[in-house]
Amino acid sequence: MTLISNHMPTAELQALDAAHHMHPFTNGNELAGRGARVITRAKGVTLTDSEGNDILDAMAGLWCVNIGYGRDELAEAAARQMKELPYYNTFFMTTHVPAIALADKLAKLAPHDLNHVFYAGSGSEANDTNLRMVRTYWAQKGKPDKKIVISRKNAYHGSSVGSASLGGMSGMHAQGGLPIPDIHHINQPHWWAEGGDMSPEEFGLARARELEEAIHELGEDKVAAFIAEPVQGAGGVIVPPETYWPEIQRICDTYEILLIADEVICGFGRTGNWFGSQTYNIRPHIMTIAKGLSSGYAPIGGSLVCDEVAEVMNDCEFAHGYTYSGHPVSCAVALENLRILEEEGIVDRAGAETAPYLKEKWDLLTDHPLVGEAKIAGLMGSIALTPDKSSRAAFAADAGTAGLICREACFGNNLVMRHVGDRMVISPPLVITKPEIDTMIERAWRSLDQAHARLKDEGLM
Ligand code: PMP
């Protein structure tokens, strides 16, 4: 039997991958034609591939490796827990120490009275929990008609049937008959693409007021909750205008609806504070968490729930849960991750030192002829590619063509930067150093130059 290992030639690994592995969000045939890049190791912010290339991972994996790669303490926490108690559930009047300790830690870290956690295995699962929880909450309060959850177009809340329905990705809705009933989508606060002649401030208010209009139109007695990411991540790092969140909060305070902040990306230091809700002064009733909770070292997600909602939910048996809700190994890894993020001052430093430095450098990219706006929130950022900055024009080619060209140039320059349509996005590990930021910007600039030249050569601008 051939042992499949890092020592195998890349082409053989790629052939086996193409033969048997179906990749998420990927055209399998296209990938098989070019061969997947095989990542073999990682340390800090640097990935190594099977050809020995060192690649700067400006995406922290999928927005999740906040602590950086290669922290032995997390591996050791997992090994210790696997030896002591690799698995037990919390369904039938049982619990275990890792679940208790992590819940206690989360209650202390989370703002306001988000003192309770319902564990899940991922962000998608946690948002499915939220969907069922808010509807169950209102039913428990004698208002079973309050079922509609309002979300936003171009939001990302996960890939399960429930969470993808909550999300507002039209490409996802087009496959498999989504969304499910009683989900309503309003417009996003994406000024660059949709702001027209309004100032960002006017536009932020107008988009927030769509929530109020939707509540009136659907009926306050029918609406259970509003869900949103503090900063839309997968939608393209859309940092909302300053006027947006205060107005949303006012509306949520005025009407009897629950506010769910999906902090799967924004949580655990990404926006420069522990939670995006703190950065934007939001007071959610429920917060979705995952990703940075364990820095991606083990799969875990959850819903942080405020006292009032938990009190109502605790009055019934919520017929909901996952085999891996509160998985002891994931909880132990998450706890160790949070300990390090806190004790080593990683989150504090990211907000106070790294974020301002990154912003200064990131903003310089607007000097590039291909770049319209540059947006940044803590350590998540985006740039809009455009053929004409002054009119905020889109490219004549299909949306995403220029972005893909730029992403490929980045890959060629050993930089992982993702494209969302024609926006380039970053979300590096929080531990990225100033010299590494300089390297990242230098590679991004070189990639933009190459993309610019190619777009011109191909008559795309
Ligand atoms: N919510 C948001 C805001 C996300 O960005 C993601 C993942 N990118 C999810 C939910 C889904 O999380 P998961 O992939 O862990 O299911």
Question: Can you walk me through this structure?
Answer:
By secondary structure, this protein is α/β, with parallel strands linked by helices. It folds into two domains: 10-70 and 345-457, Aspartate Aminotransferase, domain 1, CATH 3.90.1150; 72-343, Type I PLP-dependent aspartate aminotransferase-like (Major domain) (Aspartate Aminotransferase, domain 2, 3-Layer(aba) Sandwich). 42% of the residues lie in helices and 16% in strands. It is built from 17 helices and 15 strands. The chain has helices spanning 10-20, 28-34, 60-63, 72-84, 97-109, 123-140, 161-166, 170-173, 191-194, 200-218, 244-254, 276-279, 307-313, 328-343, 346-364, 401-412, 434-457; strands spanning 39-43, 46-49, 54-57, 114-120, 148-152, 183-186, 223-228, 258-262, 286-289, 301-306, 371-377, 380-385, 415-416, 418-420, 423-426. It has a seven-stranded mixed β-sheet with strand order 4-10-9-8-7-5-6, sandwiched between helices. It has a four-stranded mixed β-sheet with strand order 1-2-3-13. α15 runs parallel beside α17 (434-457). The longest helix is centred in the last third of the chain and has 24 residues, at 434-457. The protein is globular. The protein starts with 9 loop residues before the first helix and ends with a helix. The chain binds 4'-deoxy-4'-aminopyridoxal-5'-phosphate.
